Amino acid sequence: MAESTATVIGPDTVIKGELTFNSKAKLLGTVEGEIHAKGDFEVAEGATCKASIDASKVVIDGLVEGNVTASDRVELSAKAQLRGDLVAQKLVVSEGASFTGHCKIGTGATSNGTSAEVKPQAKGEPARATTGAKK
After folding, report:
1. For residues 89 and 68, what is the distance between their CA atoms, to the nearest angstrom?
2. pLDDT digit string (tens) for 38-71?
3. Taking the CB of residue 86, how many other CB atoms lie within 10 A of it?
4. Is residue 50 a contact partner of residue 67, using CB atoms and an 8 Å limit?
5. pTM to 2 decimal places
6. Which residue, 33, 35, 54, 130, has fewest beta-carbon neighbours within 10 Å?
C-alpha cells in the first residue's frame, strides 16, 4: 500500500469550524474549532490551534488551546504550549514544553484508566506526575 500524502494548512491560513482528515495533516497556520484525524496530526512551530484534537498521534511544536485525545501518543516538543486536558496511551514531553491541564495516560486512558496530574516545576526540573489512583 502506498503511503498517503499529508494535508498541509499553510501559515497564512485561518480556518474556523470542524476539520476531518483521513490521513496525516500538518498545521502551519491557525485553526479554531474541532479537528478529527484518522492518522497523525502535527501543530508546527508558530501555528495556533484553538480546537479540540482527536487523532491517532498528535505532535505539538506550536500552541494548542483545547483538549487533545490520541489513540496512540502525544509528543510535546521543547517549544510546545498545551493548555487543555490530554488523553493518550503514550506521552512524550521534551524539556522546555509548557503544559497546563490534566492528563490520562496508559492503555486504559481512553476508557476509565488512571489519571495523572502534571504539576509545573521550576525551570530545569523534570515534570512530576501524581496519579489519581486509589490505593
Report:
1. 12
2. 999 999 999 999 999 999 999 999 999 999 999 9
3. 25
4. no
5. 0.78
6. 130
Rounded to whole angstroms, the Cα distance separating 51 from 131 reads 26
**What ranges do the domains of the chain cover?**
7-102
Report the C-alpha gap between 49 and 111 in whole angstroms.
25
Q: What are phi and psi of 58, to 5 degrees?
A: -125, 125
By residue count, the chain amounts to 135
Task: Please check whether residue 61 is in contact with residue 42, taking contact to mean a CB–CB distance below 8 angstroms.
Answer: yes
Query: Where does residue 33 rank: exposed (0-12), middle (13-18), buried (19+ CB within 10 A)?
Result: middle
